[in-house]
Specification:
The strands form 2 sheets. This protein has a 4-stranded antiparallel sheet with strand order 1-6-3-2, covered by helices on one side. A 3-stranded mixed sheet has the order 4-5-7, with no helix packed on it. Strand 4 (78-87) and strand 5 form a beta hairpin. The two termini are 20 Å apart. By secondary structure, it is mainly β. The chain has one helix at 31-41, and strands spanning 5-13, 24-28, 62-68, 78-87, 90-98, 110-118, 124-129.
Length: 130
């Protein structure tokens, strides 16, 4: 069963990994936990505007999912969320990695995407698809 979600922001971190965020999925079920992760994301460059993150949504049963790719050696990399669905008592976030087409800038980047959805009652798992 598909789950509805909203992409709040996507982009790249440019700290060459100094943010110390491993690739994978991070779920935030409270505003404070999302701010803690955003603080790490903003450690090197101001990437996320915290005023654009929902506050009231957390009180109405929403959650934020932060999905990070590995640190890449060039620009042009991106992550997109293709589907979020329930299957076998697990909530699967299906993401797709996009590599640059043609020449790309030589800069260390870490692609990310932030989505908002109804707070899951099931375990959440990230699944990269082709």
């Amino acid at each position: 069963m598909k789950v509805s979600f909203v992409v709040l922001q996507k982009g790249n971190l440019y700290g060459a990994g100094e943010e110390e965020i491993a690739s994978g999925l991070y779920a935030a079920y409270a505003h404070a936990s999302s701010l803690s992760l955003v603080k790490k994301m903003n450690r090197i460059n101001l990437e996320i505007d915290t005023t654009k993150l929902p506050k009231k949504d957390f009180y109405t049963g929403s959650a934020l999912l932060f999905i990070f790719d590995a640190v890449r050696g060039s620009g042009g990399h991106e992550i997109s969320i293709e589907n979020i669905l329930t299957r076998n008592d697990t909530l699967f976030v299906q993401a797709k990695k996009h590599a640059p087409e043609g020449p790309a800038s030589t800069v260390m980047t870490q692609p990310y995407v932030i989505v908002s959805l109804e707070k899951p009652t099931l375990p959440v798992q990230l699944e990269f698809i082709e």
